[in-house]
């Protein structure tokens, strides 16, 4: 139950509500959820009871509510390595500039931004530095961290970056740094630098996976990530039991070359969801292991099967796909399964979601900022 005086959140690019789930679970009250996509708003409203379809690059800022927190998973396509990486030259890249205008008008206490890890390297790192600089001109502390769904125990390779901007001297994400990165030491080639933000954009400093700008000075440490991998049994995860003496491979269809090929991975997490290719979680195994019993188990979790590239291939249903985003995501399963919309739209809605299990790692730390 949300507290009576709970800190409030206005959410931009809300999607189906993954981030909202994380905020609610942490104790926040979400007072407005906004998205430009009518399908996302339709789903969000059915599940949460409210959503506003607004293009923040064209709207009146009077349409957007003030709150304690502004949250925005601004469009990742201009920065993603799976796209053309046009950055701020892309129309969707201008959403960040509109967010800055909104911040200037509404004076949010905390801003949380989420994007793909590719934001770090877009335009030789200048895009990310520009984002940090603009936030650092408005807030005393800007901190960020990248971490993967793999790191929290599900077989989905989905690294994301989260940026927090606020006016506290203390960093809130330091506990997550300890969880996802090795502690810097001389043995790990420890490096630290402090650069005024006026010099930061054109500095040769490479963007780190975690860091902070405090009082307009970039504080950089060389971060050594812990290995991202799924340590569990993929068959057990998918079927909740072993269905035979064989190995299930993660994979994906790839068709840019003009012919569709099924690629597999020994790493068990090469599948994708909602990519520019319209991807969906896809798996396969040697057809010699296919039996009526095995097929029955596959059909419980899949909505498509075929023989392809020497494999018996199956694609997870939207409901099962949500399990790959963590336990908190499964609450959306029944509604998205029942939705009367094209299958590709369902996967796109899921693929655009910031996993609530990933988001909660940050939102519960943010809640402490308001309760201390």
Describe this protein's structure.
With 372 residues, this protein is α+β, with helices and mostly antiparallel strands. The protein folds into two domains: 239 residues, 3-Layer(aba) Sandwich (Rossmann fold); 118 residues, no CATH class. The chain has twelve helices and 17 strands. The strands form three sheets. The protein has a ten-stranded mixed beta sheet with strand order 3-2-1-4-5-7-6-10-11-9, with helices on both faces. The protein has a five-stranded antiparallel beta sheet with strand order 14-13-15-17-16. Helix 2 links the parallel strand 2 and strand 3. The longest helix has 16 residues. The chain is globular and about 65 Å long. About 3% of the residues have low confidence.
Element layout with pairings:
Layout (H helix, E strand, L loop, with lengths): L7 E5 L5 H9 L2 E7 L2 H11 L3 E2 L15 E4 L21 H13 L3 E7 L9 H11 L4 E8 L10 E8 L7 H7 E2 L9 E5 H4 L9 E5 L2 E5 L2 E2 L8 H6 L9 E6 L6 E5 L16 E4 L6 H10 E7 L2 E6 L1 H6 L9 H6 L4 H9 L4 H16 L1
Parallel strand pairs: 1-2, 1-4, 2-3, 4-5
Antiparallel strand pairs: 5-7, 6-7, 6-10, 8-12, 9-11, 10-11, 13-14, 13-15, 15-17, 16-17
Helix pairs in contact: 1-12
CATH class placement of the largest domain: Alpha Beta
Main β-sheet: number of strands, strand sense, barrel status?
A: 10 strands, mixed
CATH architecture of the largest domain: 3-Layer(aba) Sandwich
* Tally of helical segments: 12
- Measured by DSSP, the beta-strand proportion falls in 15-25%
Report mean pLDDT, rounded to a whole number: 88
- CATH homologous superfamily of the largest domain - what is it? Vaccinia Virus protein VP39
Write down the Rg.
Answer: 21 Å
Count of all domains: 2
DSSP strand count: 17
Using the coordinates shown, work out and report the CATH topology of the largest domain. Rossmann fold
Quickly give the structural class: alpha+beta
């Amino acid at each position: 139950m949300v507290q009576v005086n709970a800190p409030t959140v206005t959410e931009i690019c809300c999607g189906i509500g993954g981030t909202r789930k994380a905020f609610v679970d942490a104790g926040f009250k979400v007072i407005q959820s906004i998205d430009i996509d009518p399908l996302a708003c339709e789903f969000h409203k059915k599940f949460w009871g409210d959503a506003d379809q607004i293009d923040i690059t064209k709207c009146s800022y009077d349409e957007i509510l003030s709150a304690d927190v502004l949250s925005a998973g601004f469009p990742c396509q201009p920065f993603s390595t799976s796209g053309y990486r046009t950055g701020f030259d892309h129309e969707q890249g201008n959403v960040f500039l509109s967010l800055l205008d909104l911040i200037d008008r509404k004076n949010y206490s905390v801003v949380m931004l989420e994007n793909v890890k590719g934001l770090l390297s877009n335009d030789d790192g200048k895009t990310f530095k520009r984002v940090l600089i603009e936030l650092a001109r408005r807030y005393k502390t800007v901190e960020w961290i990248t971490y993967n769904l793999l790191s929290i125990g599900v077989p989905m390779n989905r690294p994301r970056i989260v940026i927090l901007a606020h006016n506290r001297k203390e960093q809130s994400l330091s506990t997550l740094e300890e969880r996802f990165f090795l502690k810097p030491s001389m043995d790990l080639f420890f490096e630290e630098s402090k650069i005024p933000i006026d010099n930061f954009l054109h500095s040769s400093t490479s963007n780190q996976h975690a860091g902070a700008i405090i009082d307009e000075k970039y504080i950089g440490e060389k971060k050594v990530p812990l290995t991202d991998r799924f340590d569990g049994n993929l068959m057990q995860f998918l079927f909740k039991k072993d269905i035979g003496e064989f190995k299930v491979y993660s994979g994906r269809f790839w068709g840019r070359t003009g012919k569709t090929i099924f690629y597999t991975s020994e790493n068990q997490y090469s599948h994708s969801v909602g990519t520019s290719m319209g991807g969906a979680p896809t798996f396969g195994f040697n057809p010699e292991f296919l039996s009526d019993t095995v097929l029955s188990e596959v059909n419980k979790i899949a909505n498509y099967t075929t023989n392809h590239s020497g494999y018996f291939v199956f694609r997870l249903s939207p409901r099962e796909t949500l399990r790959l985003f963590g336990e908190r995501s499964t609450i959306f399963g029944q509604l998205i399964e029942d939705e009367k919309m094209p299958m590709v739209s369902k996967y796109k809605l899921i693929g655009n979601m910031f996993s609530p299990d990933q988001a909660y790692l940050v939102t519960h730390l943010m809640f402490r900022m308001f309760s201390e």
